[in-house]
Structure of Glycerol-3-phosphate dehydrogenase [NAD(P)+]:
Amino acid sequence: MAFPGKIGVLGGGTWATALAKIMLNHEKHINWYMRRPEQIEDFKKTGHNPSYLSNVEFNLDRITFYSDITQIFEDSDTLIFAVPSPFLKGHLEKLDRRIDDKFIISAIKGIVPPDNLLITDYLHRYYNVPSENMAIVGGPCHAEEIALERLTYPTIACPDIEKARVIAEVFNNRFVKASVSSDVVGIELAAVLKNVYAIASGICHGLKYGDNFQAVLVSNAISEMERFVDTVSPIKRNIQDSAYLGDLLVTCYSSFSRNRTFGSMIGKGYSVKSAQIEMEMIAEGYYGTKCIREMNEKYNVHIPVADMVYRVLYEGASAREEIKILREQILK
């Protein structure tokens, strides 16, 4: 069977649902794994995901559902991972087969805690998936806007640029225009960092700082991102490309951004735990903040905005006082 072969989607949330919609614009049939059998049963009864993006209707004849992760790997050639990064290890531990014979696309904009490994690094180290058999989805692509069929520009990154182009064609349709890149590490890191900075943006919003201040915060954040990414992966890249700057901007400003919402709640006075409970969805930046902090013990990059978010989320520092320090001593 020609690459990419039979495609399977892993995840039952908002992003997985949006990706399934995209795939079905190109593919006649997809496989789809969800952890909970009852979610699958409700999906089959209603024709849509009962919990996420329920306005998106699906033709069930074009989908084979699985609650057995091993079986979807058996029946698929290319797997798109769209589960929250903190849960990835738990899902993969249920596997009863090798996966290094598959092509893996990570749509997870996070990092594996507590290993502090990017998704592709984790899959390569622990599951022996060759680097050339992995791609990532980067760039500004909120699931809610995909559901509304608003124009979206993701980036498909893979060391094998020809494979990236093939995957991009699978993504492309009248409202998705995918580009390609070979900068897997840089785009993965940018996807983690933009969530951290979106929490900072949300904190400022919750504290009622205005748009002028937000603009200064985000302009400093992109400089931090560039320093960190270039230190970890020193190759030539343009940080102003949509895979980096574009993803940062949409995550910091969009009302669909979970991380911005989470940060806004913190700024309004919620505790971290109460904000997490009320959101009912994963804010990847919470986990990414700690992972970036621990990664930076090795690289020692100057990232004061990310450090501020860490102190607020993990050390109990006052958000109001931390932003005051940031605005008076660091932001410019």
Observations:
- The first helix runs from residue 14 to 24.
- The mean pLDDT is 95.
- The chain has two domains: 7-182, 185-331.
- The longest strand covers residues 134-138.
